[in-house]
Design goal:
The protein is built from six helices and eleven strands. The protein is of the alpha/beta class and about 180 residues long. The protein has a single domain (about 5-175), classed as Spore Coat Polysaccharide Biosynthesis Protein SpsA, Chain A. Helix 2 (about 70-85) runs antiparallel to helix 4 (about 130-140). The longest helix is centred in the middle third of the chain and has 15 residues, at about 70-85. The chain is globular and about 40 Å long.
């Protein structure tokens, strides 16, 4: 009998939030930090949730292992490395600043190989075995998420609903209004 894949949910939360002007993970949305909204949406869909780039509550923290701040690929690399060692089949990544997340996110991204949403590329599903390939990609000097998506031939999946990416205070106001 086939078992369902064991998926690690990885929240990419290590950014500096320069355009936002403060820590957007802590920005209140409906009375709770944005990070709580993302964790709450992801938790029932995965075997475990980890936070990349910071500590949060009692969740597993996955710090970047790269010597310099290289962006969200460092968070994905940390998550894939942990997933491969801990026996997860894959990793679903979500950024801390995209709301609301669909309740069937993992189901939408399921399928052969890696997959990302068409317009929200940081939301993706990555087989754990890609850890070595991503480590080599980063060692070669590329830091671009889009180049990684192309390198590993990730499938593009249509978003099921409008997703709000909060990069600025104006984006945050729009997300709060929605």
């Amino acid at each position: 009998m086939n078992r369902p894949p064991r998926i690690l949910g990885a929240v990419l939360a290590g950014g500096a939030s320069r355009r936002f002007g403060g820590d957007k993970a802590l920005a209140s949305l409906g009375g709770a930090p944005m990070l709580d909204h993302v964790v709450t949406a992801l938790t029932p869909q995965v075997a475990e949730v980890a936070i990349c780039g910071r500590s949060w509550d009692d969740l597993r923290a996955l710090p970047d292992t790269t010597p310099e701040r290289i962006g969200p690929l460092a968070g994905l690399e940390a998550a894939l490395r942990f997933a491969a060692r801990a026996g997860f089949d894959g990793v679903v990544t979500v950024p801390v600043d995209v709301v609301p997340l669909p309740g069937n996110l993992v189901e939408l991204l399921a399928g052969p190989g890696p997959a990302v949403f068409e317009n929200q590329w940081l939301i993706g599903c990555w087989p754990a075995h890609l850890h070595a390939a991503l480590a080599a990609f980063l060692a070669a000097g590329d830091r671009r998420w889009r180049a990684w998506i192309e390198h590993c031939a990730a499938r593009r999946v249509a978003e099921p609903c409008p997703l709000h990416n909060v990069n600025t205070r104006a984006d945050w106001s729009a997300a709060r209004a929605a």
